[in-house]
Amino acid sequence: MANPMQDSLAALTRYFVGDSTMSETLRRVCDAAIEAVDPATHCGISMAVDGRIDTYVFSHPEVPEIDRRQYETGDGPCVEAFATGRTVVIRSTAEPGPYPEFCEVALRHGVRSVLSSPMRTDGETIGALNLYATRDEAFGEEQARVAADFSAQAAFLLDNARAYWDARTLSENFQQAMTSRAEIEQAIGVIMATMGVGAQEAFETLRKQSQHENIKVRDVASEITRRTVRKR
Q1: Which of 81, 164, 172, 223 is least enclosed by beta carbons within 10 angstroms?
Q2: In sequence order, what are the beta bridge partners of 48?
């Protein structure tokens, strides 16, 4: 018999983060979470970027509207799960209880129960997986356990994805810097040969042209090397 959670976890385990962008990775996590925790109809992932917690990825356009109030007030299930590293369950947004402002907004959007599970790796909370259902008491102990298992695996995936994209960004920046340096050195060589000047004077010529045309030195250098190649 098929097990939705196991199928979803297996899909995440097979998923290679390099195949897609970070946002696509997160969207896949949302889709898989809804499959894993059957009562859930919507999903969102809270993450901190530049010290600001927000719902950066979601399965339904109403999710960020539901979550916005808790980020404004600092009081809500996603915020608490992120801050404490503990699973938070709201059995009914229609009943009196914690997070009254969040619950009011959630109920207005048809969400009647919520489960927020922290996504932790190496002792660090890197996000919160937030599940929403349209009926009361949709998330009990079993659903909380499944969400915790899923969040742990998803956190591992996201940590790898974050490391991959950080490393890739650094690599691309480094490669761009090396390419720019090579083009500038080639352009200096061209100027030295055509004007009969030394390396310092050639660089000053390049820099002055950059200032005169109000474009970057590397762009001036790139154009000089392209023109030289075309003339050959």
Answers
A1: 172
A2: 53
